[in-house]
Amino acid sequence: MAKKFDAIIIGGGHNGLVCAFYLARAGMRVQVLERRHVIGGAAVTEEFHPGFRNSVASYTVSLLQPKIIEDMRLVENGYRVIERPISNFLPQEDGRYLMLGGGLARTQQEFRKFSDHDAEILPQYYQALEQVAEVLRSLALQVPPNSGDGLGGLVAAIKQGAPLAGLTIEQQRNVLDLFTKSARAYLDGWFESDAVKAAFGFDSVVGNYASPDTPGSAYVLLHHVFGEVNGKKGAWGHCVGGMGNITRLMAKACTDLGVKISLNSAVEQVLVQDNQVIGVRLHNGKKLFAKRVISNVGPKLLYQQLIKSKHLSADFLKRIKGFQTGSGTFRMNVALSELPKFTCKPEPGEHHQSGIILAPTLDYMDKAFMDAKTYGWSRRPIVEMLIPSTVDDSLAPVGCHVASLFCQQFAPVLPNGQSWDDVQDEAANTILDTVEEYAPGFRASVLAQSQLSPKGLEDTFGLVGGDIMHGNMTIDQLWSARPVLGNASYRGPLEGLYMCGAGTHPGGGVTGAPGHNAAKVILRDRNPLRSAFGL
User: Fold this and answer.
1) What is the pLDDT of residue 134?
2) Dist CA 490 CA 294 (whole Å)
3) Closest Cα partner for 15 from 508, 520, 534, 500?
């Protein structure tokens, strides 16, 4: 059977494009198949109302690996990120507010409004997190050791574990705390102010259908701080042109190397013969053949929908069934006639260019989660608002703005057999009501809106359960156990099958790391006697 391509990649999101780039750079013939009409997966910019454009799903930049930015020459071709002047702005229910970021001294000054103790201990807290974050950075572009790989796996485990072994006992205890404790338990050990703990604890529930009281949620807090913007560690920013500009530039880097990208090309089935993948069948019945099939979709979607169960072992199917997904996320974009006027800080300012967090305490976040478990969504949800048009005038008409509302604690599966299709408008109104509480007049400024419930995220982007991470970021689903123990090195259980999406190490976020690492493995398998072409 003739093989037209060396590799077919399912899904044109950023990780699939990164993987395609490195494979093509090494001389491979690569076909990328994207189900939607636009390249980029969940990192796309689209018009949702005449004259108003915004990032549709993913919405902010920090975790994209500098090596990938450099290798793909993104900056030379127009990649530009504007750093937030402050990281986050948290209105409080008593009329005060807290601003996080803008330098240590400035953040300490903010903290003193709530606690002198918290201001004084802040440098130690930052140092503790940075030490662990540095270990994560060192692992991000490494292939995790795979159980069953014998001596090679053992050597990799020793090598990758060396940075942890080199930490002091106090630092090792801190690592253990971050990987096992709840966010609240961890933060209680450092701070006394509810507002300060909320400022940090918010990260523990982003893309995580959990309470800040859930054991292991402290790790998700950490996962959001190991990135950087323009060389500044821990910073976040806005990509000019929206997230779609990143994947547009990545797609150009790929096509310049001969990668074929096909849109409106949903894969219906991975074709398997004698325990080896041979290609794919598209939704229109067309078959494409290749020596390798690389999945940029989540493990649940790949193994429960795209591959017939008869080709997979019973134990593997059991493990995939147990792979936990569902991030409890509801995503909205709104077109605004004016900037929101927050009761605690109504005048325009740099807080409008930050992450605006409407979740004043850890108790508020816990209640939001309990509401979602009981009713399907929180009656006072956790809302993060970004207004990228304050720094990027290409997104909205003059005098108007676009805002992203990234909302947490919406059940992936609703109780009592309800469908998100029937109640998403009601849930969206709850979100707008929540913003209105903090910024009276906000509703009146909304000219138009678009919304994606957890089901909408699944239907649009293939994110099972609306899971933006392709699978929960818990200790049992990380590193050598992502997605399952024995298949953590980006190789699937069938010959020629690989994975390059966020359901592999190091997990979710716009990092590009899974795509980079998968390409490294594929190229080594292709010619194990040679290096991986500079990867």
Assistant:
1) 86
2) 9
3) 500
pLDDT at position 155: 65
Residue 267 has φ and ψ, to the nearest 5°, of: -85, 130
Q: Identify the pLDDT of residue 533.
A: 43
* Domain, as residue range, for 151: 121-227
Whether 112 is in a domain gets the answer no
Which residues are bridge partners to 452 per DSSP?
A: 331
Return the residue matching tokens 């590009």: 512
How far apart are alpha carbons 398 and 356 in whole angstroms? 22
* pLDDT score recorded for residue 171: 85
- Looking at residue 529, what is its pLDDT? 63
- CA-to-CA distance for 470 and 14, rounded, in angstroms? 14
Same domain for 460 and 330, yes or no, is yes
User: Could you give the CA distance from residue 492 to residue 303 in angstroms, rounded to a whole number?
Assistant: 10
pTM greater than 0.85 (yes/no) = yes
Domain match, 47 and 138 both: no
Q: What is the DSSP letter of 84?
A: P
CATH number of the domain enclosing 57: 3.50.50.60
Q: What's the CA gap between 54 and 106, in Å, rounded? A: 31
Q: Who contacts 7 (Cβ-Cβ below 8 Å, separation ≥6)?
A: 20, 23, 28, 29, 30, 31, 290, 291, 292, 293, 294, 522
Are 77 and 18 members of one domain? yes
- 365 and 297 fall within a common domain: no
Domain boundary, last residue among 465, 486, 502: 465
Same domain, yes or no, for 478 and 437?
no
Supply the DSSP symbol for 166.
T
- Which residue has tokens 């500009």? 245
Residues of the chain with pLDDT under 70: 1-3, 148-155, 157-158, 224, 529-535
Domain boundary among 227, 248, 263: 227
Q: Are 314 and 332 members of one domain? A: no
- CB-side neighbour CA atoms (13 Å) of 223: 28
Radius of gyration from C-alpha coordinates of the chain: 23
Is 458 a member of any domain?
A: yes
> How far from the centroid of its chain's Cα atoms is residue 111's Cα?
29
Q: How many whole angstroms separate alpha carbon 136 and alpha carbon 356?
A: 27
